[in-house]
């Protein structure tokens, strides 16, 4: 982004990404199944860490230390990494972020098993560090993600109402951004802000996915392989301005929610626009987040 203030956000994001990467590596070293650590690290490597960044920024904007929220950031990124590894199998994608997809490197069976291990491992981290309510919200988010994936993988887009697109991305992508904001406020001890944080995070997730689909729909091979992109095209209905208009409307909504959640927090206010830029301009060139 071009404003001086947003450079600070970029710097904070890059610092957060390094912190999250180091914390993920440390946590994965504690996996009881030592034989899968290399595969787990491969699945979890790379990415923009936008969800983990949201956890840290939500917590810090409410007065918590980054150390108080780093384990929650690890948990959401592990869930995200596992979901991507499974997505690649479903979509038959052979690369991820410029490297072989995990299922190509390790095989289908091992990739499914390790991904399925990472999800409860992340849930255990959440329960140990943040308690029962945080765990309940983590389980609810994974259920929503799975429901969104079912719509994507099992229901032909040509037979769905175009409006189903927004519900699908709310579930498939909005749920984990929602959880990220929720865990951030829980790490800060601000349970009273859970609902506004939920709405804020979910809105960010929807904005993220629309921006991601704008980019991916430019690739004819992805458009042919991925049903969700064909549903995205049907949702547009020939109106090429609709995605960007929707993004702009949702950004304004998220900015208002950020002010309710943490009045005066510059980072939370500009984060929605930063996320769109990260996807459409492909900051750091590592593909999806």
Task: Please give a structural write-up.
By secondary structure, this protein is mostly helical. The chain has one domain (4-283): Orthogonal Bundle (Farnesyl Diphosphate Synthase). The chain is built from 13 helices and 2 strands; from the N terminus they run ααααββααααααααα. It has helices at 4-28, 37-44, 50-61, 66-91, 102-106, 108-130, 132-154, 164-187, 194-216, 220-225, 227-236, 242-261, 266-280; strands at 95-96, 99-100. A two-stranded antiparallel ribbon has the order 1-2. Helix 1 (4-28) crosses helix 3 and helix 1 (4-28) packs across helix 13. Residues 1-6 have low confidence and may be disordered.
Give the structure's gist in a few sentences.
This protein has helices at 4-28, 37-44, 50-61, 66-91, 102-106, 108-130, 132-154, 164-187, 194-216, 220-225, 227-236, 242-261, 266-280, and strands at 95-96, 99-100.
Question: Main attributes?
Answer:
289 residues, Farnesyl Diphosphate Synthase, two-stranded antiparallel ribbon, 13 helices, 76% helix, 1% strand, disordered N terminus
Compressed to H and E, one letter per element, the order equals: HHHHEEHHHHHHHHH
Question: What is the CATH architecture assignment?
Answer: Orthogonal Bundle
Strand ordering within the main sheet: 1-2
Distance between the termini: 17 Å
pLDDT average, as an integer? 93
Largest sheet: 2 strands, antiparallel
Instruction: Indicate the proportion of strand residues.
Output: under 5%
The name CATH uses for the topology is Farnesyl Diphosphate Synthase
Number of domains: 1
Rg over CA atoms, rounded to whole Å, is: 18 Å
């Amino acid at each position: 982004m071009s404003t001086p203030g947003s450079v600070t956000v970029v710097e904070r994001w890059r610092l957060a990404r390094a912190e999250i990467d180091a914390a993920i590596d440390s946590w994965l070293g504690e996996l009881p199944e030592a034989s899968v650590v290399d595969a787990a690290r491969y699945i979890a490597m790379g990415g923009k860490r936008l969800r983990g960044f949201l956890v840290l920024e939500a917590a810090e904007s409410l007065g918590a230390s980054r150390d108080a929220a780093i384990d929650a950031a690890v948990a959401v990124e592990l869930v995200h990494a596992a979901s991507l590894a499974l997505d690649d199998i479903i979509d038959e994608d052979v690369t991820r972020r410029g490297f072989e997809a995990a299922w190509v490197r390790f095989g289908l069976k091992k990739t499914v098993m390790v991904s399925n291990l990472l999800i409860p491992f992340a849930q255990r981290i959440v329960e140990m560090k943040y308690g029962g309510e945080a765990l309940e919200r983590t389980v609810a988010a994974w259920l929503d993600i799975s429901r969104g994936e079912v719509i994507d993988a099992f229901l032909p887009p040509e037979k769905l109402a175009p409006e189903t697109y927004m519900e699908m991305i709310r579930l498939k992508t909005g749920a984990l951004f929602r959880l990220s904001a929720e865990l951030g406020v829980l790490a800060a001890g601000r349970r009273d802000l859970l609902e506004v944080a939920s709405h804020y995070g979910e809105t960010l997730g929807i904005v993220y996915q629309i921006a991601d689909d704008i980019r991916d729909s430019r690739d004819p091979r992805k458009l042919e392989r991925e049903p969700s992109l064909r549903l995205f095209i049907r949702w547009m209905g020939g109106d090429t301005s609709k995605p960007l208009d929707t993004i702009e409307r949702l950004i304004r909504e998220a900015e208002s929610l950020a002010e309710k959640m943490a009045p005066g927090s510059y980072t939370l206010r500009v984060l929605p626009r930063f996320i769109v830029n990260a996807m459409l301009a492909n900051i750091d060139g590592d593909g999806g987040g």
